[in-house]
Design goal:
5 strands, 8 helices, Rossmann fold, single chain, alpha/beta, five-stranded parallel sheet
């Protein structure tokens, strides 16, 4: 039987699901890797976060980079206003998840989107159960996509 890496498997599964809800830790890790703005180069993917996540980004230079990324339409920042999604947020916070994580998982679950988090333990376990392993991503996955996109640009290809 042909072996497929976990990364390739996720890419295959994402072919029909290209909206990615990004949580606080992933945003901060992308900023630390100087790559938040670079997610805009990833073709056929849309990146979204919530106002709750934005409020958890507290360092001024990180707030500035997040704001720039949003103003350039690289990352969309949304408010959770749908009543069913709000109910999911309440349910998830009752499971001891933070508001940012809860809002991201709720929206991703409701809309059938992927969720990018670097959280371990409870958050990842709950997200995996609600969204499925194939819809659960991390910053390393995004960094690999960015790297591949940059490599293909050098070669003159589109990803």
């Amino acid at each position: 039987m042909l072996a497929i890496s976990a990364l390739k498997l996720v890419k295959i599964k994402m072919a029909s699901n290209k909206t990615v809800m990004v949580d606080t830790c992933s945003i901060i890790n992308l900023i630390k890797a100087e790559s938040l703005l670079s997610i805009g180069a990833i073709k056929d993917h849309r990146f979204t976060t919530t106002n709750d996540v934005a409020s958890e980004v507290i360092r001024p230079h990180q707030q500035e980079e997040l704001s720039t990324t949003v103003s350039l339409n690289i990352l969309e920042q949304i408010s959770v206003t749908d009543i069913e999604e709000l109910k999911l947020v309440v349910e998830l916070t009752s499971l001891k998840l933070g508001l940012g994580e809860s809002s991201c998982i709720a929206v991703a679950q409701s809309r059938g989107w992927c969720f990018c988090t670097d959280e371990l333990g409870r958050c990842k376990e709950i997200a995996k159960k609600r969204l499925g392993q194939n819809n659960l991503l991390d910053t390393n996955y995004l960094l690999e996509l960015i790297k591949k996109t940059q490599h293909n640009k050098i070669k003159g290809e589109n990803i």
